[in-house]
Amino acid sequence: MLVTKKYVIVFLLLLSGLNYILGQNVSTDSEADIITKNNFYVSAGSSLIFSAFTVVYERNIISRPLSEWNIRGGWGMNAPLWGIVMHHYLVDLCYISGKSNHHFEACFGVTMFFDQSYFKYYKNDPDLYEPFSYFTDWYPSAYLGYRYKKPGGKFLFRVGLGWPEQFGVGVGFCI
């Protein structure tokens, strides 16, 4: 009976120690648990006939262990090869998935183009000028790409293909 009590006590001590050892992988305040809610970045891109740059603010709205949903809004400028400079405004919903530092990114939404050449031409003619009728167009926007962002880190790098960014590269920071 005394031998059995010793085995039970040793077994319970080992079991409690094992629980402590396994608990070493569980973190409550590590960088991996910190979710950056706000991202700011500048993205520039080009194709053979069209170039663009965009300044973007992105906000995390849903976070899962291996994915997140963000909403982003941005302003930028576009210049086709023929020289008409246009502003664009975009609003997108983004899905980001991946482990560790490497992520897949897919965004979709709408973009409004503001053509400055039409605005400058029509703004002084009251018979022709109708706000937002001649110089704005709405287009769908989409983006597929790779995102480097360390969980809890402050640096953001992205590269991908989309509209209005074309083949684009972006850098930014996270808060």
Describe the protein.
This protein is of the alpha+beta class. The chain has one domain: Porin (Beta Barrel), CATH 2.40.160.20. Helix content is 16%, strand content 54%. The chain has two helices and eight strands, in the order αβββββαβββ. It has an eight-stranded antiparallel barrel with strand order 1-2-3-4-5-6-7-8. Strand 1 and strand 2 form a beta hairpin. It is elongated. It starts with a helix and ends with a strand.
Topology:
Elements: H1 2-22, E1 38-46, E2 50-63, E3 67-80, E4 86-97, E5 102-115, H2 116-122, E6 136-148, E7 155-163, E8 166-174
Antiparallel strand pairs: 1-2, 1-8, 2-3, 3-4, 4-5, 5-6, 6-7, 7-8
What is the gist of this entry?
By secondary structure, the protein is α+β, with helices and mostly antiparallel strands. It has helices spanning 2-22, 116-122, and strands at residues 38-46, 50-63, 67-80, 86-97, 102-115, 136-148, 155-163, 166-174.
| Overall shape | elongated
Reading side by side through the largest sheet, how are the strands ordered? 1-2-3-4-5-6-7-8
Just give the CATH class. Answer: Mainly Beta
Indicate the radius of gyration in whole angstroms. 26 Å
The helix count comes to 2
CATH topology: Porin
* SS-derived structural category: alpha+beta
Extended strand count: 8
- Please outline the major beta sheet: 8 strands, antiparallel, barrel
Strand content: over 45%
SSE ordering? HEEEEEHEEE
Q: What's the overall average pLDDT, rounded? A: 80
Residue share in helices? 10-25%
CATH architecture: Beta Barrel
* Poorly predicted residue ranges: 18-29
